[in-house]
């Protein structure tokens, strides 16, 4: 495996992050959600979200390979909310997500955040449980007209 560096988001990362989100939802999360659900979640227009604005206004950590390829990313808001958290399909189950998460948790501690919280997909729930998160509740959310199950989860720091 290539050398991976965990660092903060840079403007030039935006295209890779948008594509990584789209491809991960379409190719990995489809194991736990229907094709209609993943198309609603990750629409064909990968710029449905202003990735540059969102990533710039959060502590967005990226896992970048030495060749510049982004293998994963995670977003921390100042209130302890973890927004997007995705690893490329070829970098799952190899410790990369844990490295991104550890950077997020270290930043949260630095910010004196006492609680991290997220809405984890069915797919991501086991990962967050391994990181010490507890399920608060299962919930149904609507995304572009489709209903999806996710889990409100939290970890006290």
Q: Order of strands in the sheet with the most strands?
A: 1-2-3-4-5-7-6
N-to-C series of helices and strands: EHHHEEEHEHEE
Main pleated-sheet profile: 7 strands, mixed
The proportion of residues forming helix, as a percent range, comes to 25-40%
Spatial extent as radius of gyration: 15 Å
Distance between the termini: 32 Å
Class by SSE composition: alpha+beta
Summarize the structure.
By secondary structure, the protein is an alpha+beta fold.
Describe this structure in words.
- The structure is a single chain.
- The chain has 157 residues and is an alpha+beta fold.
- Helices cover 31% and strands 34% of the residues.
- A seven-stranded mixed sheet has the order 1-2-3-4-5-7-6.
- Helix 4 (96-110) links the parallel strand 4 and strand 5.
- The longest helix has 15 residues, at 96-110.
- The mean pLDDT is 94.
